Amino acid sequence: MAAVMYWWRQRRHRCGCGCDDATLKAKAASSFVLNPTRVEVVSACLWKCAMAASEEKSGFKRPSLLSHVVNLRRRISPPLPENSMGNLIWIASAQPMAKHDRLGLLDLVGQVREGISKINSDFVKKLLGDERSSVILKSLKRIEEFGSKDGVDYFGFTSWCGPVFMNLIVLMETRNGDGIDAWVTLDEEEMAILENAIWSS
């Protein structure tokens, strides 16, 4: 089926957990992630709804893999200016560590945080140093080994730019900086289920 683009402005509408921006961040805070970012919270919320949509469509729980494009500029020591030229990005990944029915928003926020936090200054130092070949192979192999298995749902996120692919969620800060725009691409059937999950929660 054809991909469908779905637009969701979080600052104006409810998310899949039925909350506005501030309420959702408060609900997502835990002893593991005291102050979750908007990107972490919205990613986890949409990931949770997307897994539920996939389960409803297929009739069973499918393994799931999330990836997030990470901007390396602020993770290099010392940080580079945001307007630096070049594709200074890498891919962080996360996968549920429990069955879907035991996964709450707090769990997924923690897993998103853990995946992104691995792309830190030490990782970037190795990525740009003599160890880069082994670091690149090890990082991509981890994603490839899980994501290439039969029956695995892959959801790719980026919070700043990206082309339109199936199962891609793009997060962009709103122009005035008070919310997040989320662009979601799924197949037509799953999109209808996801929309219903978001608005009826």
From TrEMBL:
Family named by the database record: Belongs to the plant acyltransferase family.
This protein's UniProt keywords: Acyltransferase, Transferase
Organism: Actinidia rufa
Name of this protein: Uncharacterized protein
GO molecular function, one term: acyltransferase activity
